[in-house]
Amino acid sequence: MSPARRAPAPGGRRRRPVALIALGMLVAGGLFAALVRDQFTLQILTFVFIFAIYAQSWNLAAHSGQYSLGHATFLGLGAYASVLLAGRLGIPVALAMFIGPLLPALVALGIARLCLRLREWYLGMVTFGFTAIVQVLVVEQFGWLTNRWDGVEARSLWPGALSVETVGVLSYLAALALMVGSYLFAAAMMGSKTGLALAAIHDNELVARVSGVNVRGYRLLAMTVSGYLAGLAGALNSHTLTRHISPGIFGIEDSIWPLLYTIAGGLRTPEGPILGTLIVRVFWEWTLRELGGFESLILIGAALALIVMFFPQGLYVLVTRVAEWTRTRVRAG
Amino acid sequence: MVLDSSSLLQILIWGLVVGSIYMLLATGLTLIFGVMKIVNFAQGELMMWGAFLTFLLARWLEVNPYAALAGSALLVGLAGVAIERFGFSRIRGTAKINEIFLSIALILVLQNTLARVFVPYFREYAQIRTPYATEFFDLGVINLRYDFVILIGLAWALMLGLGYFLYRTAVGRDLRATSQNRSAAMLMGIDVRRVDMLCFCIGAALAAVAGSLYGVINPFSPYAGTIAAIKAFAVIILGGLGSVTGAVVGGLLYGVVESVATFFLGGSWRDAIAFVLLIVVLMLRPEGIFKEGG
Amino acid sequence: MANTRWFDLAMALAMVVAAPAALAQAGTVRLGLLTSMTGPAAGTGLDQQRAATLAVEEINAAGGVSVGGKKLKLELVTGDDQTSREGAVSGVTRLLVEDKVDVVFGGLGSAFGMAALPLIRDRGVPYIPTPSTPLFTRTMELGPDPTKSMVFHYQGTGLMYGAATADFIAQALRRGERAKVVWLYQDSPFGAEYVRGYSDRIKERNLPLDTVATERFKVGETDYRAQLTKIKALAPDVLVPMGFRGETVAMIQQAVLDVGLDRKKTAIGPVCACADDPLYYKDLGRVGEYTTILSLYSTYAAPKNRLFARWEPFRELFVKRYGILPGVMGVSAYDSVHIAAKAIELAGSLDKAKIVDALGRLEMDQQVLPVNGGKLRFDPKFREVDFYLIAQQLLWDDKVKELRPVVVWPHEVAEAKYRQP
């Protein structure tokens, strides 16, 4: 593959009004909840927000050229750590949710350290392998703590006295807030000097090193941050929606989806993971309702194949194109 | 720990049998990688389609599954060409991760189409029945089913045939040349597009054979291919991307390690141990055991 | 604001989802079947859906359920758990929120049922799960008091099967003789409970069984040769291969054909009652001759006892409608519909708390699945049903060219004695 054919790092083509977008998301999300009171729709969107955080975490690692195929490791460890902290030690859930992900952050650091010499496919497979290994460890070595395959029930983030509807709305808002927070963080990180360094490493590690970029440090940093964020998504999910965790979380599927969401939306843009998760997930739910399970998955597969063939840089390109088109129209008019 | 000579022999045989299946799958992957520098994870789904077609053909035409296997390999081989033409050839040159994306999209399509057809009739599993299921070779300490001997024999015959094709024919030479240096091959007048299609065809056909053999010795489900393909990919990483020798050695080694680990550590380590091996090897040799190319 | 354009797009897309759900038909009782309609277990999910449909049609043909003097029709709604935890959460929410079901029932995978449980519990909807794990009603780590729980477990549990396994081996298979037993079992909550039920029963009754090895395999794995090779070297008297249908078939075939286990020395079975399915007899083939299987519902046997009186009629009904025989998971879904209907009549209302209460004090004639004493009720402590298990030995039937079962245990319903090959 010749680097020349690749588009410039999509992270820094034009300064994006990050604050405006974040505000837009908050307002739109809030309005949506106020207008559409349907619990099921809100729950789907809560899923979308949580998985968007997860996809964002994958995106950050990818931004430094570390394409992980085993992010479920971090998602699962974050969930387990937080659930166990809250359940066994009685730490308030809202606190445990932020302490728990330190474990996957640490594990991510360790894995990144081991993988410093590895790139591309090699790195992908090693990260995938760690998911399989961590699953066995969680079941076998830490079975006394994790109930082996039985799994652990998670405490709810919200007090038990609240009604189911209120809890649904609160979870939705919490997920929305954290997603916007992770977006701001990712945008700031990609837009900063660190982001430039990461992009340089992504494009050509050797060149980056020669030009004085601390490749080692930045790679470790990107993976650690990514591990934390993935763990946060896992913790948030298990205290709001899927309130029972079992070792099945360390499966292939959970490692694959953030990759699909991010690339469908726009790889290495802070908006891509959010856009991709929203579109794919909503499309999925819609086809599931209209057609049924197998047909829905077949259709998603076909749609994703078309996306990558016609928009290899993700659907976010559409947005920027529309934006530019409007701008020129406005100028001309 | 009980480990007498007959147990040891059996463990090694099980390892070689599974290893032969990984070997076929991995060889297909590594050929494609060598030439196009892409990885098609959907190889595992082609494998299960291969098993299913062999199963159906043997049933409908009432022929020996080992004969039906040829038909299945042909059909899946053609599907491989279609996948290359309408899928992978279109995304060459875009971001590297896009290949994974496309292969996952293909997995979704292939796996669920198969499940859609398979599940209402066969529920979770089906198995390919051969006329030799209860025929044995007496090896003294153990009896070995004909099917295992046929499986290993067929896998090796295919590998030798492939070796002959790659090293003794003009088309095989073109293929190796493209694998070593694509642009040079193009300048030499080799039609690399045809080479691409050929690779995908061989890779898919090998996957179909691997799947059919898997279906002879194990019950198969539409979902069994994914993890097999990932392991096969780990095999070619272990052996060195693009290296056929690596795929052969890596495949067999993987099979044996899995079998031995299950025996000593228990079944829960079966999948994980392969990756422990992969990680250890990559820590020592970041480019795999055998180097890239040919 | 051009850059926030995609919010319009997102909103439009989300609106698609927000499209008004099919409004619940007034005057119907909605039963939500939460099971796997996609993914590896989808075939068995279909079995449940078919069987439940049959039960709903039966009840409606008889006029429906009477609630407060009015006859209401039943309506079956299926929620797909997609054989995944996230799928279960999404599927059950759809049932609870959109379809507003009055009862949730069914299911195959314990992990998916458990993932759905907190959401069902939050809304206080009665739940009759049919996966095997006893965890549904036995661990409520953070939940309410089990006796006030809304979960009523209608399925043979691993604990029950494990205990029956120990009893059967000691009483019928070895007739009191001391035996070396090995297990090859599924590494899952179900498998772990199963082995625990077995070990507990041995301790409890001081049975002369020595468990010399417990080997495990991962769910979905179908190559057991390495474990079986190890087991063969131990030369046990009994091998208990425990797993789902496909897994069990593969274990027995590999043990006999590939690894060469000495059939004269080692008895194989009893295998899990969950494997009893037409396809089990078909797939296993002659290799399975003389093996044994536990059953909560047998595909072919028809022991002469009132406990099994409904087996034959149910089979006929099912075959007439779908052209194939049902499996035990389908039967439990069928029964669950009848139980739910009965409880609603007893409650005389669609009020959730009243239905839960009715389920708690329900006492009705057993349905298709046999219950000790013939009366079906949920025991007040664990909210489980005291099922009556049988063991069968499989023998080759030359007429149909397939294995057919002979009931060999317990002795009061046995058709023949267990035979060593």
Report on this model:
The complex is a heterotrimer of chains A (333), B (294) and C (421). With 333 residues, chain A is mainly α. Chain A has one domain (16-332): ABC transporter involved in vitamin B12 uptake, BtuC. Helix content of chain A is 74%, strand content 1%. Chain A contains 15 helices and two strands. Chain A has a two-stranded antiparallel sheet. In chain A, helix 9 (193-203) packs across helix 11 (215-240). Chain B is mainly α and 294 residues long. Chain B has a single domain, classed as ABC transporter involved in vitamin B12 uptake, BtuC, CATH 1.10.3470. Chain B has helices at 5-36, 43-60, 65-91, 97-122, 146-168, 170-180, 182-187, 192-217, 225-239, 244-265, 270-284, and strands at residues 136-138, 143-145. A two-stranded antiparallel ribbon of chain B has the order 1-2. Chain B is globular. Chain C has helices at 6-18, 42-61, 85-98, 110-122, 135-138, 158-173, 189-205, 225-233, 245-258, 278-284, 311-322, 328-347, 352-361; strands at residues 28-35, 65-67, 70-80, 103-106, 127-129, 179-186, 209-217, 238-242, 267-268, 292-295, 364-365, 375-376, 390-397, 402-409. In chain C, helix 2 runs parallel beside helix 12, helix 3 runs parallel beside helix 4 (110-122) and helix 8 (225-233) crosses helix 9. In chain C, the strands form four sheets. A five-stranded mixed sheet of chain C has the order 2-3-1-4-5, with helices on both faces. The model of chain C is unreliable at 1-7 and 9-25 (pLDDT under 50). Chain C is α/β, with parallel strands linked by helices. Chains in contact: A-B, A-C, B-C. At the A-C interface, helix 1, helix 2, strand 1, helix 13 and helix 14 of A face helix 1, helix 3 and helix 4 of C.
Biggest sheet strand line-up of chain B:
1-2
What's the total helix number of chain C? 13
Question: How would you sum up the major sheet of chain B?
Answer: 2 strands, antiparallel
Biggest interface found: A-C, 58 and 50 residues
Identify low-pLDDT runs of chain B. none
Separation, N- and C-terminal Cα atoms of chain B: 43 Å
Topology:
The complex is a heterotrimer of chains A (333), B (294) and C (421).
Chain A: H1 18-35, H2 39-63, H3 72-88, H4 93-99, H5 102-114, H6 120-141, H7 143-146, E1 152-153, H8 164-191, H9 193-203, H10 205-210, H11 215-240, E2 244-245, H12 252-265, H13 272-291, H14 293-310, H15 316-332
Antiparallel strand pairs in A: 1-2
Helix pairs in contact in A: 1-8, 2-8, 2-11, 2-12, 2-13, 3-4, 3-5, 3-11, 4-11, 5-11, 8-9, 9-11, 12-13, 13-14
Chain B: H1 5-36, H2 43-60, H3 65-91, H4 97-122, E1 136-138, E2 143-145, H5 146-168, H6 170-180, H7 182-187, H8 192-217, H9 225-239, H10 244-265, H11 270-284
Antiparallel strand pairs in B: 1-2
Helix pairs in contact in B: 1-5, 1-6, 1-8, 1-9, 1-10, 2-3, 2-4, 2-8, 2-9, 3-8, 5-6, 5-8, 9-10, 9-11, 10-11
Chain C: H1 6-18, E1 28-35, H2 42-61, E2 65-67, E3 70-80, H3 85-98, E4 103-106, H4 110-122, E5 127-129, H5 135-138, H6 158-173, E6 179-186, H7 189-205, E7 209-217, H8 225-233, E8 238-242, H9 245-258, E9 267-268, H10 278-284, E10 292-295, H11 311-322, H12 328-347, H13 352-361, E11 364-365, E12 375-376, E13 390-397, E14 402-409
Parallel strand pairs in C: 1-3, 1-4, 4-5, 6-7, 6-8, 8-9
Antiparallel strand pairs in C: 2-3, 10-13, 11-12, 13-14
Helix pairs in contact in C: 2-12, 3-4, 6-7, 8-9, 9-10, 12-13
